[in-house]
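Protein Record: Sequence and Backbone Structure Tokens
======================================================
Scope: a single protein chain, as residues and as a discrete description of its fold.
Tokens: labelled as protein backbone structure tokens, with as many entries as the chain has residues.
Position: the record begins directly beneath this header, with no further notes in between.
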Amino acid sequence: MYIGKVVGTVICTRKDESLTGLKLLVVQPLGDDLAPKGKPVIAIDTIGKAGRDDIVYLAKSKESSIPLDNPLVPSDAGVMGIIDQYYIK
């Protein structure tokens, strides 16, 4: 798992049938110091409540679709939760 910041949404006119009804988000991965790390990824919003500027935690690859009814959803990442507070020591 890793954390990221939602920086946008994806609007699709056509997509894989297994993604029907799922919200897709553009998420910028963050490092330990909450600085951007790497390239943005497209993530499935498995909880249905994440939005722009939210700090979220994500799962990669196959684990990203575990909360969904269909475990064979093609995705690189999935939002598992929204981080309300964080503390960096």
Observations:
- The domain at 2-82 is CATH 2.40.50.220 (OB fold (Dihydrolipoamide Acetyltransferase, E2P)).
- Strands lie at 2-10, 24-29, 41-45, 55-60, 77-82.
- The chain has one domain: 2-82.
